[in-house]
Amino acid sequence: MSTAAATAPANAASAAAAPPARGKKKIILIGGVVLLVLALAAVGGLLVLKKRQQAADSGDGSTPAPAAEAKHAPEAPPTFVPLDPFTVNLADRDAERYAQVGITLEVTDAKVAEEIKAFMPAIRNNVLMAIADRTAADLGSREGKAQLAARIRRETLRALGYALPPEAGESASAAEHGGRKKAKDAELPVKAVQFSNFIIQ
């Protein structure tokens, strides 16, 4: 009797002790998960701070780097420089023909736009010469206008001091006349020439 009585309280004590052991395991598990989440949040915060610091270091201090990078991003709006309209006598020999052309230059950024304004007399001279040696037939087709746009771009870059490779039928000395700056096509500041008006009479 005494043995059975002794084992009964022992069994009751072990049964009462078992639930708190499971409860401790749950607390330890929850604490571990919380610590893991906190550690991940701390690592994420450090990475964000490090990126901001690198962005601030890559800028000049007054302008944050993301704004500086935006001008090179494809989604950044382009900078356009409209030129005063051109009225030019064409090279037709059988009749007196002339063209009225509105031109807008697409450039890489506002700094280039300011540089273009400083070189405007030379740019206008080169553009006038590029248009004046064409005939009405040359400029009547879409291809002729595209060729003129490419030539105006080249002449604008030359006025800005860029040395460019010669075109077909052009000597190397003529192509590089006045060229002080050398650059690959992707680095050139004038990206395209847009026509806002094109009338041949």
Note down, in words, how this protein is organized:
By secondary structure, the chain is of the alpha+beta class. The protein has 2 domains: 2-68; 79-200, Tetrahydropterin Synthase, Chain A (2-Layer Sandwich). The protein is 56% helix and 14% strand. It contains 7 helices and 4 strands. It has helices spanning 2-58, 65-70, 110-118, 120-132, 136-140, 142-159, 172-175; strands at residues 79-82, 86-89, 98-107, 190-200. Strands 1, 2, 3 and 4 form a 4-stranded antiparallel β-sheet that branches. Helix 4 (120-132) packs antiparallel against helix 6 (142-159). Mean pLDDT is 78; it is low at 1-8, 60-72 and 171-176.
Task: State the main characteristics.
disordered N terminus; 201 residues; Tetrahydropterin Synthase, Chain A; rod-shaped; alpha+beta; 14% strand; 2 domains; single chain; 4-stranded antiparallel β-sheet
How would you summarize the topology of this molecule?
Elements: H1 2-58, H2 65-70, E1 79-82, E2 86-89, E3 98-107, H3 110-118, H4 120-132, H5 136-140, H6 142-159, H7 172-175, E4 190-200
Antiparallel strand pairs: 1-3, 2-3, 3-4
